[in-house]
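Tokens in:
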């Protein structure tokens, strides 16, 4: 008789009967399996879905509310739901409740839609009002027994509800009297991968691409399923598989077959695939002489290509396009507008329900106007010119994912066009993988910004979620920070940025602090002595990086091309608007980019009340001062300091904040596993070293221009300017072909 079983976590469970000799081998095999699990038990791979056993007392309470499971398995999504519940409850509670068909005792968990579950139907819940992907979790009485129902209008909504329910357990929330209802206005909640077909990830700091194109479509790495589960757990429902600097080969049959295979893995988890396309693909792949969007042959080629894709992938999402930007081809190569280009692709996709995400990240080398103004100048006149299935994808700020930017003036300025938010989750400009920078506050700051476009309260979030101008097609995209590293993101704390992005895409009004706390509990456990200081540290981290890299509205001061470290002195080619000196404009007298009405007048792109505030040097927030104004070093700040002294204070505070973060972490040894603890400790040491480097190099350089002394008590840079200027980094990750 078999005396060994495994619980949901794969742990060996032995009963008390004598063990037949023949079972020793099986026992050893199981132990080996268990040992292997332990060997990389806390390498970050499990992300926030660890489902490790809860403290016994807590688990016992929850077990009363998880006595039996009623969950169908008629569809792949329902099977995924079942598996996740078994895995989650099995891990958290030590043992998963049995799957049954009828409610026979108190504490049943019933999941499904009114269509998939007669029990859910009988409860007559208001699932219709939940909309697509929405769910409710409610404590109910079923056949005389108190229990919990997790229901949606569709399977994917139920899946999201199940992840929410598991999160309640992971974060040790009460579950006895639940009445939760969640819907989203954000239709597209996407990750954009900047992954090339050779495995290199542009601006990726977590190793190679997770897409193993060479082994696809045959080998489906289990990691793809974990990717899908993880994304579904935060409501992400689409993925753009390849870089916006797109290689045309992605549209060849060879690759489309591989894309189809990935789509098949993701489908049960409610995730659709999208592709970045190169505008000139009709030439490179199709053998045509032109990619002119008004050319009938070109239009036919795209229609045929769309038909071909949808034959393979009936729920294919659509195209993402970077055109006429940073050397990419586009409609302007043929004298056509961005709308002509986007609409041609939209027409090809429309019969299949596909959409086009056309990027507004457009600026030109030949345009001498302030780069911050160019996207608005290009796209604002096209408001209303796009097809219904086109979204304009707009970066959060007008330049490029800097540690801090004011919101992009396009938000609120194009009421007849759905604007999709583009955030960068990978930290191209915020210290790559090793700097602990929690991006929740950055995302929140942008989403909460008031565009004033339709009066007070016209927040960026309301523009993006469609409420402000009544759009149903809405979306958010996050440039992924995911790679093949075991921990997915290059550091455990960078996982929080993936998490926060997903949570805010679902609900852009969530607080970044609440998200940080959720994530910390799920990722590291509920030890209160750990959670509070870690959340405080995360919340401090974004302002710290702004301070040690680009305080008071400075921006784009990083190393040329690779974007690693400070290079504020860089004035090299090939174009002025890729150099720091273009942005800080510092000289002996002063510093800052004059975008006021007496300068480039970028302020005029904002709604009048916002424009007036940014234009007025006495009213502009300090955080944007040098973004909008060029001021003398001796300018008197609100604090009473001169601008120069204030700048030095901020640089120094940034370094001090990192020291504080390190001290906080230093006190937390023993509260979590040694592996992740040590990695974060070493990364914080790197961050401190590099924060110091940013401060010292920046101060040394600006001081070389203004010749001013440092305020009393502030240490001089460790090295002379020439030392920093001589540093070279030929093999920085994420950069180059
Ligand atoms: O910030 C720049 C990056 C490029 C990127 C570009 C974009 C994909 O440095 O690497 O290209 O933005 O967003 O298109």
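Residues out:
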């Amino acid at each position: 008789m078999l005396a060994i079983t495994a619980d949901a976590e794969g742990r060996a469970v032995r009963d008390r009967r004598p063990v037949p000799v023949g079972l020793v081998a099986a026992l050893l095999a199981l132990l080996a399996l268990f040992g292997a699990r332990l060997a990389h038990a806390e390498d970050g791979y499990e992300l926030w879905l660890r489902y490790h056993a809860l403290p016994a007392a807590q688990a016992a309470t929850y077990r009363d509310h998880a006595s039996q499971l009623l969950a169908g398995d008629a569809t792949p999504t329902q099977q995924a739901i079942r598996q996740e519940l078994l895995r989650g409850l099995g891990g958290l509670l030590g043992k998963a409740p049995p799957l049954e068909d009828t409610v026979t005792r108190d504490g049943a968990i019933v999941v499904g839609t009114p269509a998939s579950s007669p029990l859910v139907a009988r409860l007559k819940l208001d699932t219709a009002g939940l909309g697509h992907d929405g769910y409710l979790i409610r404590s109910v009485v079923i056949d005389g027994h108190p229990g919990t129902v997790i229901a949606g209008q569709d399977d994917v909504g139920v899946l999201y509800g199940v992840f929410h329910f598991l999160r309640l357990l992971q974060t040790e929330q009460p579950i006895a009297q639940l009445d939760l209802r969640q819907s989203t206005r954000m239709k597209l909640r996407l990750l954009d991968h900047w992954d090339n077909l050779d495995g290199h990830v542009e601006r990726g700091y977590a190793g190679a691409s997770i897409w193993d194109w060479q082994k696809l479509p045959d080998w489906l790495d289990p990691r793809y399923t974990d990717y899908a589960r993880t994304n579904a757990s935060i409501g992400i429902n689409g993925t753009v598989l390849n870089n916006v600097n797109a290689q045309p080969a992605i549209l060849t049959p060879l690759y489309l077959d591989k894309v189809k295979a990935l789509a098949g893995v993701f489908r049960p988890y409610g995730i659709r695939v999208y592709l970045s396309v190169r505008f000139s693909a009709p030439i490179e792949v199709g053998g045509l002489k032109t990619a002119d969007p008004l050319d009938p042959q070109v239009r036919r080629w795209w229609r045929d290509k769309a038909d071909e894709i949808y034959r393979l992938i009936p729920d294919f999402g659509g195209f993402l396009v970077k055109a006429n930007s940073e050397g990419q081809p586009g409609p302007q190569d043929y004298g056509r507008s961005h709308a002509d280009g986007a609409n041609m692709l939209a027409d090809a996709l429309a019969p299949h329900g596909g959409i086009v995400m056309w990027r507004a990240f457009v600026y030109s080398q030949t345009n001498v106007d302030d780069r911050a103004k160019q996207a608005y100048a290009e796209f604002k006149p096209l408001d209303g010119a796009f097809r219904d299935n086109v979204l304009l994808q707009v970066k959060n700020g007008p330049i490029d994912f800097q540690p801090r930017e004011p919101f992009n003036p396009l938000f609120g300025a194009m009421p007849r066009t759905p604007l999709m938010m583009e955030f960068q989750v990978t930290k191209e400009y915020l210290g790559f993988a090793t700097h602990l920078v929690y991006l929740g506050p950055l995302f929140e700051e942008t989403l909460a910004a008031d565009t004033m476009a339709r009066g007070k309260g016209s927040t960026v979030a309301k523009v993006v979620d469609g409420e402000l101008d009544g759009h149903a097609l809405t979306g958010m995209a996050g440039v992924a920070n995911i790679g093949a590293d075991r921990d997915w993101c290059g550091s455990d704390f960078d996982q929080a940025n993936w998490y926060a992005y997903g949570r805010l895409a679902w609900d852009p009004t969530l607080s970044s602090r609440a998200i940080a706390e959720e994530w910390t509990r799920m990722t590291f456990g509920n030890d209160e002595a750990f959670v509070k200081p870690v959340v405080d540290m995360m919340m401090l981290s974004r302002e710290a990086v702004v301070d040690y890299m680009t305080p008071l509205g400075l921006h784009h001061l990083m190393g040329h091309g690779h974007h690693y470290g400070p290079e504020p002195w860089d004035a090299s080619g090939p174009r002025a608007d890729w150099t720091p000196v273009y942005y800080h404009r510092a000289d002996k007298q002063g510093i800052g980019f004059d975008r006021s009405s007496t300068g480039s007048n970028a302020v005029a792109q904002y709604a009048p009340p916002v424009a007036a505030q940014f234009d007025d040097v006495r009213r502009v927030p300090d955080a944007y001062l040098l973004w909008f104004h060029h001021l003398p070093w001796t300018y008197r700040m609100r604090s009473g300091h001169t601008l120069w002294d204030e700048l030095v204070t901020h640089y120094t505070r940034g370094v001090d904040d990192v020291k504080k973060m390190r001290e906080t972490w230093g006190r937390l040894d023993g509260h979590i596993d040694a592996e992740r603890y040590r990695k974060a400790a070493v990364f914080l040491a790197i961050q401190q070293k590099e924060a110091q480097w940013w401060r010292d190099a920046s101060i040394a350089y600006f001081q070389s221009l203004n010749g001013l002394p440092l305020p009393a008590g502030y240490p001089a840079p460790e090295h002379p300017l020439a030392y920093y200027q001589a540093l070279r980094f030929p093999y920085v990750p994420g950069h180059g072909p």
